[in-house]
Sequence to fold (199 residues):
Amino acid sequence: MYNISPLLVKGAILVLEPNTGIPLSTINFEYNPETIKRSLQPQSVGDQPDRTEVLRLKGPPLETISCEIEIDATDLLAAQDPATMTYGIAPQLSTLELLVYPSSAVLIANEVLSVVGTIEILPMSSNLTLFAWGANRVTPVRLTGIEIAEEAFDPQLNPIRAKVSLSMRVLNVNDVGFLTPAGALYMAYQIGKESMAQQ
Fold:
């Protein structure tokens, strides 16, 4: 008799280089979220369109996603993972937090440019963030909020358990264009929805 158990797919946040789509890092969820909230705001032609345009759409809806994920060091501590034994879950939390920070190198470079008199400094760009919450549901997002509640600590006060609330806005082709890695990923996400609707 075989012991067959279902393969558990875990959600994740993936970080890609925005122009090439090269993976930079992955933050796997310890446990899948119990609840994912989504909001879709249709992009109609106007607030009060006339009769000829009442059914027209300017583009994909503005979609927002929010969820709470847990990061827990229990399994890694039991396996005596060296980084977890030394830092707890601080590396995972730092990786998440840095998704909304410009890099220190860019901050310093921009300060140098301002000191030498450069008149225009472009806003700092970030990496491409993907929210993966199923094999057919991977979408580019912009994080609009991160709230971290650290709940347990080791003897050195390193966090070993935390709940993280994520707020995200899905980036669609109106935001990023068609001919970008983010645009291609969004189109795969929308086509996946269209395919699922046919089931």
Summary: The first strand starts at residue 12 and ends at 16. The chain is about 25% helix and 35% strand.
